[in-house]
User: What shape does this take?
Amino acid sequence: MSRHRPSLFLTRLAAACSGLSHRMGQRWLRPALQALQPQAILRVEGLRADQRLVALTIDDSPSAETAGILDLLSDHDATATFFIHGANIRNAAETRLLRRMLDDGHEVGNHMPEPVPSVQLKPHEFAAEFERNHRILLDAGTKPVRFRPSHGFHNRPMAEFMRTRGVELGYRPEFYLGLTFPWDVFFEIPGWYARHNAHAAAPGRIVVFHDNQDRRDWRGTIINQSRRTLAALPLFFAELEKQGFKARSLAHVEGACGRRVARERD
Assistant: This one.
């Protein structure tokens, strides 16, 4: 058996276990994490049981595979929130990808300029990098209002920044995270990861995929997470459809439960 392609039995077993872990998470893990991180949004609250929407988020765009990801989303009538690393916007073609995201009904969010863990930055460094990425996104024709810290962790100075300067810049003060662990960062198991996320689907659940091509995995090997996402998304959408769920952007899901849907373009 290939180390990258676990057996179908193990894939299905792990996916089934993800449903159990989801139920356990709803009972104790999410409340515990929410108490520790009151400014984090781990799930969009307020949807009725019959509002079968999950919030699809894609980190680290744009890349050479982003156009293919956008094509897949269009084919499956899905929308997403793309959290953007501004350093990846290097030319007019990559700027056009962000414009296409908006034209196709997606949302663009701030993910810092580069994949440096946000919590490793000093407060003044974090503030400068946040605003640098904000300006890059504005120059690309977007108006971001949601923030996800790079590598997903935050601290007290970051929280204070979001409540003050972040709000002044037009952002919501919360950190948009999620509860599902991003296994796609570590292992090339797109089928398992797709089912893992789909089996944990619940109204308002935040799902995370990645769109980058030059990261190192836990072994130090350079990996292409964008291609993993391209392989996983069709399986993810198929499993969601079986359960009657739709994948939508954070703006759409928050709007469905009465929260303000932010405009991204003037």
In short: The chain is about 45% helix and 10% strand. Residues 1-16, 260-266 have pLDDT under 50 and may be disordered.
